[in-house]
Every structure is written in structure tokens, then in C-alpha cells.
């Protein structure tokens, strides 16, 4: 298929759309597909984003419902606190491990394919849990599910960035957080209640089916990427002989590439997915979204890109560790009957509200402004949970009220923290680094959840739950200095050449005053000779 590039400044079009599964290249123009005349599937209200939200609900229904049920299942098999915490710890360790391999996966599979395979690896092993509650068997199943969840988490959040324009990204992340949080609000406490009322097998069968049924929805997505401010790239005849136009994101550096003979600058290579965030202009390939296009120094690359993401990574890691301890041990730490499901409901409802509100605010005011308050709320909430455990013998009502209040404070803070850290990472990584940002964010969330669950279990064996929750509060408080807004400013994606400043010659020093004398013909002749003999001043304007 022939490709030709035409650059017209000041125009904004739609990017070429590639589907690695079919090898076709289409185009979108003026909100509609040039080939089929159908509405553009991208954007906040587009078909692809709606399918992503439904698929997210299904996959996270599996994850959320089993987050507290699997530790209880291992406790049924006789595991102690260390083994109970290891169930979540192994799941998240496998999740983080596969995220280290995402760069290689993204070079071979599209985001949609990764999401579909991840849903299968997350859902199918769930049907194996009823066969045994032995700790070794449970941990083996958790490891396989962790691989699937890692693929689902990275692909889902990266697609969130790629399916919507940048000015809708904050709201898109907020809606994605809603789709992630709703199963946690409803199914995490419902899973605990269902397991105690109807047995663990019912929970495993239903959640496994919900996850597997998302695969057809994922494969039904178009694979197109949302429009970006760009220069026009004209595409020749497609596979069916129709001509169309599309655009790809290009910068001033792409013009340098074109002048140096890189004819494919700004054009996605056939066979790459337009929504993967890793294969950028000229078919760039790199670990999880690293942009290797020559001349794109306006955005961080390689180690510099990861360094830019270190601060939000640390903030999320600490608070996610606290969440891991809560989800694994809150049902075991609360004595009042019925308190755990209500507390978990409030915790994740508040988290969903906080994440949505932070997304709306980031689009209107700017990103990162809620980080200090979010960190403070998370630390305060964990201190409240420690006090709640200390009140366990003071009466069920006091314990329930303290637990619900602590859950509301921690949930609001952690929800806002999730949204702001993700949007900050997307902004710092640049438009071609969405895969990198998504991977790093999910590594912080999943790694923190697993490590926190394991650490809380180990601390609880020696210090009790109070010691575990107090330690989590102190760790979060220690990250507070990193939450203050920095002076970081993202580099512009396109810099117009500056016009040369006009040259202002330095004024000549004033000539010394000479007394005026009567001019004679001899004086005039001498003055003319002096003027013509004077050397030229290089700063004096010509003429």
C-alpha cells in the first residue's frame, strides 16, 4: 500500500488507524470513518470507549470480588496470617512481573489483544479454586491470575489515554476509575457475604464467567486512536482501492527527519496498533511506550522518562500498600458482625467518588493539585483504622462508626490520588509514552497492594493489626514532602520557530562640543576632507 506524506500547517485531522489483527489501515475524518461513513468510534462518548468501560467492569468484577474472598478461602484451608497475606502478595507479584515484560508484549501484540488474553488468564483459572483450599494450590492459581490481571490493568489504562483526545483525558481517567471502582464497591463486600451465605464455589463460578465474557467485547473494538493535534498525512489507496486521508502526530523534529531522508516520519508503520501507545511515529518501538524517534528531544526518553515518573510512583506505591493490607485483613480485624462488608462498601464508594471528582478538577484547573491533600487523607484514614482496631473491645457500635469514618477518609484520598498520579504520569510521559505511564502506574498500584498485604500479615503476627495499620500510616506520611506541586513543566509538543529579533545598533557617543566659528571657503574644504578621511563605524547604519 503506497503512502505519501503531505504537511500542511495549521490543520488538525485524524490519525491513521491500524489493526494488527487484520492488517488493514483505515482513516477517520471530521468525526466519521472515510471508508464506511460510520461515526468515529473514538472519544469520550465513542463506541470503543464504551466497550472498554464494559470490559473493565467485567474483568474487575473478577478481581474485586476475589480480593478478599481468596484470602478467606486460604484461611479455610488452615493458612495463618502470613499465608493469608501471601495469597494477595503472590497475585500482585505475578502482576508486577508481567508488567516488566510489557515492552516485549507491546511490540508483538496490540493493546486489544493484550487485554483479551489477560481477561482469559484472569478468568479461566478462577474455576480451579474450588478443587482445593490448600495454600500451595491457591498460590499457584493466584500466580496465573496475577499474570492476567497485569495485562488487563496495563492495557486498560493505556487504552483510556489513547481512545480520547488530550482535553478529555482527565474525565476519561475518572470514568475508567469509576468502572474500576464500581465492582470494588459492590462485589468486594458482596463477595464476602456470598461466600459466607452460599459458599465459595458460587463466587468462583460467577466471577470467572463475568471475566471470560468480556473477551468478545474487547475484540469488537476498532483499534483506532483518538485524533491528536497534527499535520496532515495523506494515505494512498487502501486494501479495497478507496483513497482516504488521515493524520499522524508529528512535531517540528519530524520535519528534520523528513529533510534527512526519513520518508516515513510521522507515519505509523502498517501492522501497528494505533492505540498501543508504544509504536509511535515511524513505527518506533521501545519498552512500554519508549519513543525512539530521532529528534524528539522535546519529550523525555529512556531513563529520563522513568525518572520523571518516580515521584507519583512513590506516592501511589505507599498508599496502595495500605490498601492491600485493608482488603486482605479488614474482614479479620473487625469484631462487630456485619461491619466488614459495610466498611468495604464505604471504602470503595468513597474511592470512586474521589477519583471521579479529581478527574473533573484536573480538566478544569490542572493536574496534581490534590496530591498533598490526598496523601494526608490516606495517612489519616490508616491512623483511624489503627484506632478502630484498638476500639474492638469497647463496643460494636463505636468500632463500626470508627471503621466507616476511617474508610470514607481513606477512600476519598486514595481515589483522588489514583487519578492525579495517573494523569500526571500521562502528561510527563508525553503523547507517545502512554504505555510507559500506564505500566509504571500499574506497577506502583499492584506492587504496593501485594507488598502491603504481605507486610501487614507479617506485622500482624508480631504486633497485631494495630501495629500493621500504624506502620502503613507512617509510611504514607513519609511521602508527603514529595506530594507538593513541583516546578516541572512539560515540554511543548510542537515549538514554532522564533522570528529573529531586529538588530538595534548601539548609539554613537556624542561628539565633543566645538565652538562655532565663521565658515570660510577654506574651512568648508578642510571639513570635507575630514569627513571623507574618517574610517567607517561598523555600528553606524548604512546611508
From TrEMBL:
Membrane-topology annotation of the record: Multi-pass membrane protein
One CC-aspect GO term: plasma membrane
Pfam families: MFS_1
Entries under InterPro entries matching the protein: MFS, MFS_dom, MFS_Exporter, MFS_trans_sf
Keywords, alphabetical: Membrane, Transmembrane, Transmembrane helix
Domain Major facilitator superfamily (MFS) profile residue range list: 48-489
Main location: membrane
Chain residue ranges for the region called Disordered: 1-42, 228-298, 482-543
Biased composition (Basic and acidic residues): 228-242, 493-522, 534-543
Molecular function terms, GO-annotated: transmembrane transporter activity
Low complexity bias locations: 23-41, 243-255
Name of the protein in question: MFS transporter
Taxonomic lineage of the native organism: Bacteria, Bacillati, Actinomycetota, Actinomycetes, Kitasatosporales
Record localization: Cell membrane
Segments crossing the lipid bilayer: 51-75, 81-102, 114-131, 137-161, 173-192, 198-219, 309-332, 338-358, 365-387, 393-417
